[in-house]
Amino acid sequence: MEEVENMTVKIHITTLGCPKNTVDSGHLARRFEAEGFIPVEESGEADILLVNTCGFVRDAKEESVDEILRLAEIKKEQGSGGEGAKSLLVFGCLAKRYGAELTQEIPEIDGLWGVSEEERIVEYCKGLKMREGAEAGAKRAGKAAAPATASAAEPGLMISYAYLKIAEGCDKKCTFCVIPSIRGRFRSIPRDEVLREAGDLVRSGVRELILVAQDITSYGKETAGSTLAALLREMASLPGDFFIRLLYLYPTEITDELLEVIATEDKILKYIDIPLQHSEDRILRLMGRRGTRKEYLRLLRNIRRRIPSIALRTTFIVGFPSETEEDFHGLVDFIEEVRFDRLGVFKFSKEEGTPSAALKGQVPERVKERRYDEIMGRQALISLERNRELVGKRFPAVVDEADAEVVIARLYSHAPEIDGAVIIERDGMPAAGPLAGPLKAGDVVTVEVVDAYDYDVKGKIIGPAS
Ligand code: SF4
Fold first, then answer.
1. Which of 228, 358, 376, 416 is 20 to 30 A distant from 13 in Cα terms?
2. Pocket of ligand 1, candidates 103, 215, 285, 320: which has the most ligand atoms within 8 Å of its Cβ, to mutate?
3. pLDDT (tens digit, 9 = 90+) per residue, 376-407?
Protein backbone atom coordinates (compact mmCIF):
# COMPACT_ATOMS: atom_id res chain seq x y z
CA MET A 1 0.00 0.00 0.00
CA GLU A 2 1.41 3.39 -0.98
CA GLU A 3 2.07 5.81 1.80
CA VAL A 4 -0.58 8.55 1.49
CA GLU A 5 -0.13 11.95 3.05
CA ASN A 6 -3.12 13.88 4.31
CA MET A 7 -2.98 16.51 1.58
CA THR A 8 -4.58 19.94 1.59
CA VAL A 9 -6.26 20.34 -1.77
CA LYS A 10 -7.78 23.72 -2.62
CA ILE A 11 -10.80 23.89 -4.86
CA HIS A 12 -12.42 26.81 -6.66
CA ILE A 13 -15.90 26.57 -8.16
CA THR A 14 -17.11 29.02 -10.80
CA THR A 15 -20.87 29.05 -11.36
CA LEU A 16 -22.51 30.36 -14.52
CA GLY A 17 -26.11 30.45 -15.65
CA CYS A 18 -29.37 29.99 -13.83
CA PRO A 19 -30.20 29.78 -10.09
CA LYS A 20 -30.36 25.99 -10.34
CA ASN A 21 -26.67 25.99 -11.08
CA THR A 22 -26.07 28.16 -8.01
CA VAL A 23 -27.91 25.62 -5.89
CA ASP A 24 -26.02 22.71 -7.43
CA SER A 25 -22.67 24.44 -6.87
CA GLY A 26 -23.53 25.21 -3.24
CA HIS A 27 -24.43 21.57 -2.70
CA LEU A 28 -21.22 20.45 -4.32
CA ALA A 29 -19.13 22.89 -2.27
CA ARG A 30 -20.56 21.45 0.95
CA ARG A 31 -19.76 17.92 -0.22
CA PHE A 32 -16.19 18.95 -0.94
CA GLU A 33 -15.81 20.57 2.46
CA ALA A 34 -17.10 17.42 4.12
CA GLU A 35 -14.44 15.47 2.24
CA GLY A 36 -11.69 17.75 3.52
CA PHE A 37 -11.12 19.96 0.47
CA ILE A 38 -10.46 23.65 1.11
CA PRO A 39 -12.71 26.06 -0.85
CA VAL A 40 -10.90 29.17 -2.13
CA GLU A 41 -12.31 32.39 -3.56
CA GLU A 42 -9.40 33.09 -5.89
CA SER A 43 -9.04 30.83 -8.92
CA GLY A 44 -5.31 31.59 -8.91
CA GLU A 45 -4.90 29.87 -5.54
CA ALA A 46 -6.69 26.64 -6.40
CA ASP A 47 -5.36 23.15 -7.09
CA ILE A 48 -8.61 22.15 -8.76
CA LEU A 49 -10.68 24.52 -10.91
CA LEU A 50 -14.30 23.51 -11.40
CA VAL A 51 -16.70 25.27 -13.77
CA ASN A 52 -20.46 24.76 -13.61
CA THR A 53 -21.57 25.77 -17.12
CA CYS A 54 -24.72 26.94 -18.82
CA GLY A 55 -25.60 26.00 -22.39
CA PHE A 56 -29.03 27.35 -23.13
CA VAL A 57 -28.70 30.58 -25.04
CA ARG A 58 -25.90 31.78 -27.18
CA ASP A 59 -24.70 34.48 -24.76
CA ALA A 60 -24.63 32.04 -21.85
CA LYS A 61 -22.72 29.52 -23.92
CA GLU A 62 -20.19 32.17 -24.88
CA GLU A 63 -19.83 33.27 -21.28
CA SER A 64 -19.19 29.67 -20.21
CA VAL A 65 -16.64 29.06 -22.95
CA ASP A 66 -14.88 32.36 -22.15
CA GLU A 67 -14.65 31.39 -18.50
CA ILE A 68 -13.28 27.94 -19.31
CA LEU A 69 -10.67 29.55 -21.59
CA ARG A 70 -9.73 32.05 -18.86
CA LEU A 71 -9.25 29.25 -16.35
CA ALA A 72 -7.35 27.19 -18.94
CA GLU A 73 -4.92 30.10 -19.20
CA ILE A 74 -4.52 30.17 -15.41
CA LYS A 75 -3.91 26.43 -15.40
CA LYS A 76 -1.28 26.75 -18.13
CA GLU A 77 0.52 29.62 -16.38
CA GLN A 78 0.53 27.94 -13.01
CA GLY A 79 1.37 24.55 -14.48
CA SER A 80 4.48 25.98 -16.10
CA GLY A 81 5.51 27.46 -12.75
CA GLY A 82 5.30 24.06 -11.10
CA GLU A 83 2.78 25.09 -8.44
CA GLY A 84 -0.91 25.89 -8.48
CA ALA A 85 -3.88 24.56 -10.45
CA LYS A 86 -3.35 21.09 -11.84
CA SER A 87 -6.83 20.18 -12.94
CA LEU A 88 -9.56 21.96 -14.86
CA LEU A 89 -12.91 20.20 -14.56
CA VAL A 90 -16.08 21.23 -16.37
CA PHE A 91 -19.65 20.14 -15.74
CA GLY A 92 -23.27 21.29 -16.21
CA CYS A 93 -25.48 21.96 -19.21
CA LEU A 94 -22.87 23.16 -21.70
CA ALA A 95 -20.64 20.21 -20.86
CA LYS A 96 -23.60 17.88 -21.37
CA ARG A 97 -24.53 19.34 -24.75
CA TYR A 98 -21.11 20.02 -26.21
CA GLY A 99 -18.79 17.72 -24.26
CA ALA A 100 -16.91 16.34 -27.22
CA GLU A 101 -16.44 19.75 -28.85
CA LEU A 102 -15.22 21.30 -25.59
CA THR A 103 -12.62 18.62 -24.93
CA GLN A 104 -11.56 18.76 -28.55
CA GLU A 105 -11.16 22.51 -28.63
CA ILE A 106 -9.91 23.16 -25.09
CA PRO A 107 -7.32 20.49 -24.39
CA GLU A 108 -6.62 21.89 -20.91
CA ILE A 109 -9.89 20.33 -19.72
CA ASP A 110 -9.06 17.32 -17.59
CA GLY A 111 -12.52 16.07 -16.76
CA LEU A 112 -16.04 16.67 -17.99
CA TRP A 113 -19.45 15.72 -16.64
CA GLY A 114 -23.04 16.56 -17.53
CA VAL A 115 -25.73 17.50 -15.05
CA SER A 116 -26.62 15.69 -11.81
CA GLU A 117 -23.23 14.04 -11.61
CA GLU A 118 -22.03 15.49 -8.30
CA GLU A 119 -21.13 12.09 -6.91
CA ARG A 120 -18.87 11.27 -9.81
CA ILE A 121 -17.18 14.66 -9.63
CA VAL A 122 -16.50 14.27 -5.92
CA GLU A 123 -15.17 10.72 -6.43
CA TYR A 124 -12.91 11.91 -9.21
CA CYS A 125 -11.51 14.74 -7.07
CA LYS A 126 -10.97 12.34 -4.19
CA GLY A 127 -8.88 10.26 -6.60
CA LEU A 128 -6.82 13.36 -7.46
CA LYS A 129 -6.41 14.15 -3.77
CA MET A 130 -5.19 10.65 -3.03
CA ARG A 131 -2.74 10.94 -5.87
CA GLU A 132 -1.37 14.20 -4.48
CA GLY A 133 -0.95 12.46 -1.15
CA ALA A 134 0.71 9.43 -2.72
CA GLU A 135 3.09 11.64 -4.72
CA ALA A 136 4.03 13.68 -1.66
CA GLY A 137 4.57 10.49 0.33
CA ALA A 138 6.56 8.91 -2.47
CA LYS A 139 8.71 12.04 -2.83
CA ARG A 140 9.63 11.90 0.82
CA ALA A 141 10.34 8.17 0.57
CA GLY A 142 12.20 8.62 -2.76
CA LYS A 143 9.78 6.33 -4.65
CA ALA A 144 7.63 6.76 -7.76
CA ALA A 145 4.03 7.69 -7.07
CA ALA A 146 1.07 5.46 -7.83
CA PRO A 147 -1.03 6.85 -10.68
CA ALA A 148 -4.11 8.86 -9.81
CA THR A 149 -6.39 6.35 -11.34
CA ALA A 150 -4.88 3.45 -9.40
CA SER A 151 -5.86 5.36 -6.27
CA ALA A 152 -9.29 6.03 -7.68
CA ALA A 153 -9.70 2.32 -8.32
CA GLU A 154 -9.44 1.57 -4.61
CA PRO A 155 -12.93 2.92 -3.78
CA GLY A 156 -14.20 0.78 -6.69
CA LEU A 157 -15.12 3.75 -8.88
CA MET A 158 -16.49 2.71 -12.28
CA ILE A 159 -16.76 5.24 -15.07
CA SER A 160 -18.43 4.49 -18.37
CA TYR A 161 -16.16 6.60 -20.58
CA ALA A 162 -13.27 9.06 -20.62
CA TYR A 163 -11.79 11.21 -23.36
CA LEU A 164 -8.14 10.58 -24.17
CA LYS A 165 -6.31 13.26 -26.11
CA ILE A 166 -3.63 11.94 -28.43
CA ALA A 167 -2.56 15.22 -30.06
CA GLU A 168 -3.00 18.95 -29.91
CA GLY A 169 -3.19 21.68 -32.56
CA CYS A 170 -3.75 21.26 -36.27
CA ASP A 171 -1.69 21.69 -39.46
CA LYS A 172 -4.64 21.72 -41.82
CA LYS A 173 -5.78 25.00 -43.25
CA CYS A 174 -9.55 24.81 -43.42
CA THR A 175 -10.54 28.34 -44.33
CA PHE A 176 -13.45 28.54 -41.84
CA CYS A 177 -11.56 27.32 -38.80
CA VAL A 178 -9.84 29.24 -36.02
CA ILE A 179 -8.33 26.21 -34.31
CA PRO A 180 -4.88 26.28 -35.96
CA SER A 181 -4.43 29.94 -35.01
CA ILE A 182 -5.50 29.30 -31.41
CA ARG A 183 -4.02 25.87 -30.80
CA GLY A 184 -0.91 26.07 -32.97
CA ARG A 185 0.82 23.37 -35.00
CA PHE A 186 -0.13 19.73 -34.69
CA ARG A 187 1.78 17.98 -31.88
CA SER A 188 1.32 14.30 -31.15
CA ILE A 189 1.39 13.34 -27.51
CA PRO A 190 4.23 10.81 -27.19
CA ARG A 191 3.18 7.20 -27.56
CA ASP A 192 4.42 6.18 -24.11
CA GLU A 193 2.47 8.98 -22.48
CA VAL A 194 -0.75 8.12 -24.32
CA LEU A 195 -0.43 4.42 -23.50
CA ARG A 196 0.38 5.15 -19.86
CA GLU A 197 -2.68 7.35 -19.54
CA ALA A 198 -4.85 4.79 -21.32
CA GLY A 199 -3.64 2.10 -18.91
CA ASP A 200 -4.27 4.34 -15.90
CA LEU A 201 -7.79 5.11 -17.07
CA VAL A 202 -8.61 1.46 -17.66
CA ARG A 203 -7.23 0.48 -14.25
CA SER A 204 -9.35 3.20 -12.66
CA GLY A 205 -12.50 1.55 -14.05
CA VAL A 206 -13.08 3.42 -17.33
CA ARG A 207 -14.90 1.18 -19.83
CA GLU A 208 -14.57 3.24 -22.97
CA LEU A 209 -11.60 5.33 -24.04
CA ILE A 210 -12.61 7.97 -26.55
CA LEU A 211 -9.64 9.06 -28.61
CA VAL A 212 -9.78 12.70 -29.61
CA ALA A 213 -7.61 15.30 -31.32
CA GLN A 214 -8.37 17.89 -33.95
CA ASP A 215 -7.42 15.19 -36.45
CA ILE A 216 -6.43 11.80 -35.04
CA THR A 217 -5.32 10.45 -38.44
CA SER A 218 -2.27 12.77 -38.35
CA TYR A 219 -1.00 11.04 -35.22
CA GLY A 220 2.79 10.62 -35.31
CA LYS A 221 3.19 12.17 -38.77
CA GLU A 222 5.08 15.29 -37.70
CA THR A 223 7.68 13.21 -35.90
CA ALA A 224 7.67 10.26 -38.30
CA GLY A 225 7.07 8.25 -35.14
CA SER A 226 4.18 5.94 -34.36
CA THR A 227 1.12 5.97 -36.63
CA LEU A 228 -2.46 5.93 -35.45
CA ALA A 229 -2.75 2.31 -36.62
CA ALA A 230 0.33 1.28 -34.61
CA LEU A 231 -0.85 3.21 -31.55
CA LEU A 232 -4.25 1.51 -31.72
CA ARG A 233 -2.72 -1.94 -31.94
CA GLU A 234 -0.67 -1.24 -28.82
CA MET A 235 -3.58 0.30 -26.96
CA ALA A 236 -5.85 -2.62 -27.82
CA SER A 237 -3.28 -5.01 -26.39
CA LEU A 238 -3.36 -3.33 -22.97
CA PRO A 239 -4.85 -5.66 -20.38
CA GLY A 240 -8.40 -5.01 -19.22
CA ASP A 241 -11.98 -5.10 -20.28
CA PHE A 242 -12.50 -1.88 -22.25
CA PHE A 243 -13.42 -0.36 -25.61
CA ILE A 244 -11.77 2.28 -27.77
CA ARG A 245 -13.79 4.83 -29.76
CA LEU A 246 -12.34 7.00 -32.53
CA LEU A 247 -13.48 10.58 -33.10
CA TYR A 248 -12.42 13.03 -35.81
CA LEU A 249 -10.65 11.30 -38.69
CA TYR A 250 -9.59 13.40 -41.66
CA PRO A 251 -11.11 11.69 -44.73
CA THR A 252 -8.14 11.64 -47.08
CA GLU A 253 -5.78 10.30 -44.41
CA ILE A 254 -7.65 7.13 -43.60
CA THR A 255 -5.31 4.34 -44.69
CA ASP A 256 -6.01 0.68 -45.48
CA GLU A 257 -3.75 -0.19 -42.56
CA LEU A 258 -5.93 1.86 -40.21
CA LEU A 259 -9.13 0.23 -41.50
CA GLU A 260 -7.54 -3.17 -41.03
CA VAL A 261 -6.81 -2.39 -37.35
CA ILE A 262 -10.36 -1.14 -36.77
CA ALA A 263 -11.79 -4.21 -38.50
CA THR A 264 -9.68 -6.75 -36.62
CA GLU A 265 -9.24 -5.41 -33.07
CA ASP A 266 -12.20 -6.42 -30.93
CA LYS A 267 -11.61 -3.62 -28.45
CA ILE A 268 -12.03 -0.94 -31.12
CA LEU A 269 -15.67 -0.02 -31.53
CA LYS A 270 -16.90 -0.20 -35.09
CA TYR A 271 -17.70 3.49 -35.14
CA ILE A 272 -15.87 6.32 -36.82
CA ASP A 273 -16.49 10.03 -36.99
CA ILE A 274 -15.21 11.57 -40.23
CA PRO A 275 -16.16 15.26 -40.46
CA LEU A 276 -16.55 15.82 -44.23
CA GLN A 277 -17.90 19.40 -44.03
CA HIS A 278 -19.31 19.29 -47.58
CA SER A 279 -19.67 17.06 -50.61
CA GLU A 280 -19.35 19.47 -53.54
CA ASP A 281 -15.92 19.92 -55.07
CA ARG A 282 -16.11 23.69 -55.55
CA ILE A 283 -17.16 24.28 -51.94
CA LEU A 284 -14.57 21.82 -50.64
CA ARG A 285 -11.87 23.78 -52.52
CA LEU A 286 -13.09 27.05 -51.03
CA MET A 287 -13.11 25.44 -47.61
CA GLY A 288 -9.48 24.37 -48.07
CA ARG A 289 -10.50 20.73 -47.60
CA ARG A 290 -8.73 17.86 -49.34
CA GLY A 291 -10.61 15.28 -51.37
CA THR A 292 -13.55 15.31 -53.74
CA ARG A 293 -17.11 14.02 -53.76
CA LYS A 294 -16.00 11.04 -55.82
CA GLU A 295 -13.14 10.23 -53.46
CA TYR A 296 -15.38 10.51 -50.41
CA LEU A 297 -17.95 8.13 -51.92
CA ARG A 298 -15.20 5.68 -52.76
CA LEU A 299 -13.76 5.94 -49.23
CA LEU A 300 -17.13 5.40 -47.53
CA ARG A 301 -17.92 2.42 -49.76
CA ASN A 302 -14.52 0.95 -48.98
CA ILE A 303 -15.04 1.39 -45.23
CA ARG A 304 -18.44 -0.31 -45.35
CA ARG A 305 -17.07 -3.14 -47.48
CA ARG A 306 -14.23 -3.83 -45.05
CA ILE A 307 -16.24 -3.28 -41.86
CA PRO A 308 -19.89 -4.06 -42.66
CA SER A 309 -21.15 -3.23 -39.14
CA ILE A 310 -19.46 0.19 -39.05
CA ALA A 311 -21.47 3.13 -37.70
CA LEU A 312 -20.50 6.21 -39.70
CA ARG A 313 -20.78 9.68 -38.28
CA THR A 314 -20.03 12.95 -40.06
CA THR A 315 -20.64 16.68 -39.85
CA PHE A 316 -21.45 19.18 -42.58
CA ILE A 317 -21.49 22.95 -42.79
CA VAL A 318 -24.40 24.60 -44.60
CA GLY A 319 -24.46 28.17 -45.84
CA PHE A 320 -20.74 28.40 -46.61
CA PRO A 321 -20.09 31.59 -48.64
CA SER A 322 -21.28 31.25 -52.23
CA GLU A 323 -23.10 27.94 -51.58
CA THR A 324 -25.83 27.89 -54.22
CA GLU A 325 -29.12 25.97 -54.20
CA GLU A 326 -27.46 23.57 -56.63
CA ASP A 327 -24.51 23.01 -54.27
CA PHE A 328 -26.90 22.48 -51.40
CA HIS A 329 -28.97 19.95 -53.34
CA GLY A 330 -25.77 18.17 -54.29
CA LEU A 331 -25.07 17.84 -50.57
CA VAL A 332 -28.59 16.58 -49.85
CA ASP A 333 -28.25 13.95 -52.62
CA PHE A 334 -24.92 12.89 -51.17
CA ILE A 335 -26.50 12.44 -47.71
CA GLU A 336 -29.39 10.46 -49.18
CA GLU A 337 -26.97 8.27 -51.11
CA VAL A 338 -24.63 7.50 -48.21
CA ARG A 339 -27.26 7.29 -45.44
CA PHE A 340 -24.93 8.07 -42.55
CA ASP A 341 -25.79 6.51 -39.21
CA ARG A 342 -25.15 9.82 -37.45
CA LEU A 343 -24.91 13.30 -38.85
CA GLY A 344 -24.37 16.75 -37.39
CA VAL A 345 -24.93 20.04 -39.22
CA PHE A 346 -23.48 23.44 -38.47
CA LYS A 347 -24.58 26.72 -39.97
CA PHE A 348 -21.53 28.55 -41.31
CA SER A 349 -20.43 31.28 -38.97
CA LYS A 350 -17.99 34.03 -39.87
CA GLU A 351 -15.04 33.62 -37.53
CA GLU A 352 -12.89 36.69 -37.23
CA GLY A 353 -9.55 36.39 -38.96
CA THR A 354 -10.40 33.31 -41.03
CA PRO A 355 -10.13 33.48 -44.85
CA SER A 356 -13.73 32.41 -45.39
CA ALA A 357 -15.07 35.31 -43.31
CA ALA A 358 -13.79 37.61 -46.06
CA LEU A 359 -15.22 35.61 -48.96
CA LYS A 360 -17.84 37.12 -51.22
CA GLY A 361 -21.34 35.66 -51.36
CA GLN A 362 -22.10 35.34 -47.65
CA VAL A 363 -25.36 33.42 -47.31
CA PRO A 364 -28.25 35.08 -45.42
CA GLU A 365 -29.10 33.60 -42.01
CA ARG A 366 -32.63 32.61 -43.02
CA VAL A 367 -31.24 30.57 -45.93
CA LYS A 368 -28.78 28.85 -43.59
CA GLU A 369 -31.66 28.07 -41.23
CA ARG A 370 -33.75 26.56 -44.02
CA ARG A 371 -30.86 24.43 -45.28
CA TYR A 372 -30.07 23.31 -41.76
CA ASP A 373 -33.71 22.32 -41.10
CA GLU A 374 -33.97 20.45 -44.37
CA ILE A 375 -30.92 18.30 -43.71
CA MET A 376 -31.86 17.65 -40.09
CA GLY A 377 -35.37 16.61 -41.17
CA ARG A 378 -34.08 14.22 -43.80
CA GLN A 379 -31.48 12.78 -41.45
CA ALA A 380 -34.12 12.16 -38.77
CA LEU A 381 -35.91 9.86 -41.25
CA ILE A 382 -32.68 8.12 -42.27
CA SER A 383 -31.73 7.69 -38.62
CA LEU A 384 -35.16 6.26 -37.80
CA GLU A 385 -34.88 3.79 -40.68
CA ARG A 386 -31.43 2.72 -39.58
CA ASN A 387 -32.59 2.33 -35.99
CA ARG A 388 -35.51 0.16 -37.16
CA GLU A 389 -32.98 -2.12 -38.84
CA LEU A 390 -31.61 -2.82 -35.34
CA VAL A 391 -34.89 -4.07 -33.85
CA GLY A 392 -34.56 -7.71 -32.80
CA LYS A 393 -30.75 -7.60 -32.79
CA ARG A 394 -28.54 -8.02 -29.73
CA PHE A 395 -25.54 -5.90 -28.79
CA PRO A 396 -23.25 -5.26 -25.84
CA ALA A 397 -24.13 -1.94 -24.20
CA VAL A 398 -22.25 0.19 -21.68
CA VAL A 399 -24.39 1.61 -18.87
CA ASP A 400 -24.07 5.40 -18.42
CA GLU A 401 -26.78 6.00 -15.82
CA ALA A 402 -29.16 3.83 -13.87
CA ASP A 403 -31.89 4.59 -11.38
CA ALA A 404 -34.88 2.74 -9.98
CA GLU A 405 -36.92 3.09 -13.16
CA VAL A 406 -34.69 3.45 -16.15
CA VAL A 407 -31.22 2.54 -17.39
CA ILE A 408 -29.50 4.67 -20.02
CA ALA A 409 -26.87 2.74 -21.92
CA ARG A 410 -25.03 3.05 -25.20
CA LEU A 411 -24.43 0.66 -28.06
CA TYR A 412 -21.20 0.79 -30.06
CA SER A 413 -23.01 3.12 -32.46
CA HIS A 414 -23.66 5.76 -29.75
CA ALA A 415 -20.88 8.15 -28.81
CA PRO A 416 -21.64 9.80 -25.48
CA GLU A 417 -22.94 13.36 -25.47
CA ILE A 418 -23.29 13.36 -29.28
CA ASP A 419 -25.49 10.48 -30.37
CA GLY A 420 -28.61 8.88 -28.96
CA ALA A 421 -28.72 6.06 -26.46
CA VAL A 422 -30.51 2.84 -25.66
CA ILE A 423 -33.23 3.35 -23.09
CA ILE A 424 -34.04 0.37 -20.93
CA GLU A 425 -37.04 0.31 -18.64
CA ARG A 426 -36.55 -1.49 -15.37
CA ASP A 427 -39.90 -3.24 -15.78
CA GLY A 428 -39.30 -6.69 -17.07
CA MET A 429 -35.70 -6.89 -15.90
CA PRO A 430 -34.78 -10.11 -14.13
CA ALA A 431 -35.88 -10.27 -10.50
CA ALA A 432 -33.12 -12.74 -9.68
CA GLY A 433 -29.66 -13.62 -10.94
CA PRO A 434 -26.65 -11.41 -11.73
CA LEU A 435 -28.74 -8.63 -13.29
CA ALA A 436 -31.23 -8.33 -10.46
CA GLY A 437 -29.00 -6.06 -8.40
CA PRO A 438 -28.50 -2.36 -9.07
CA LEU A 439 -26.69 -1.59 -12.30
CA LYS A 440 -24.11 1.19 -12.30
CA ALA A 441 -22.19 3.30 -14.76
CA GLY A 442 -19.57 1.23 -16.54
CA ASP A 443 -21.42 -2.10 -16.36
CA VAL A 444 -21.61 -3.89 -19.69
CA VAL A 445 -24.77 -5.82 -20.49
CA THR A 446 -26.24 -7.55 -23.52
CA VAL A 447 -29.25 -5.68 -24.86
CA GLU A 448 -31.88 -6.61 -27.42
CA VAL A 449 -33.30 -3.65 -29.32
CA VAL A 450 -37.11 -3.75 -29.10
CA ASP A 451 -38.18 -0.39 -30.54
CA ALA A 452 -36.73 2.50 -32.56
CA TYR A 453 -37.09 6.28 -32.43
CA ASP A 454 -35.42 9.06 -34.45
CA TYR A 455 -32.22 9.06 -32.44
CA ASP A 456 -32.65 6.64 -29.52
CA VAL A 457 -33.65 3.03 -29.38
CA LYS A 458 -35.47 1.13 -26.70
CA GLY A 459 -33.94 -2.08 -25.42
CA LYS A 460 -34.27 -4.84 -22.91
CA ILE A 461 -31.47 -6.47 -21.05
CA ILE A 462 -31.16 -10.12 -21.83
CA GLY A 463 -27.98 -10.95 -19.97
CA PRO A 464 -24.55 -9.89 -18.84
CA ALA A 465 -22.02 -9.08 -21.55
CA SER A 466 -21.08 -12.25 -23.35
S1 SF4 B 1 -11.59 22.01 -39.29
FE2 SF4 B 1 -9.67 21.78 -40.46
S3 SF4 B 1 -8.24 23.31 -39.61
FE4 SF4 B 1 -9.95 23.10 -38.16
S5 SF4 B 1 -9.23 21.59 -36.69
FE6 SF4 B 1 -10.39 20.45 -38.22
S7 SF4 B 1 -8.86 19.79 -39.75
FE8 SF4 B 1 -7.90 21.41 -38.47
1. 416
2. 215
3. 999 999 999 999 999 999 999 999 888 777 88
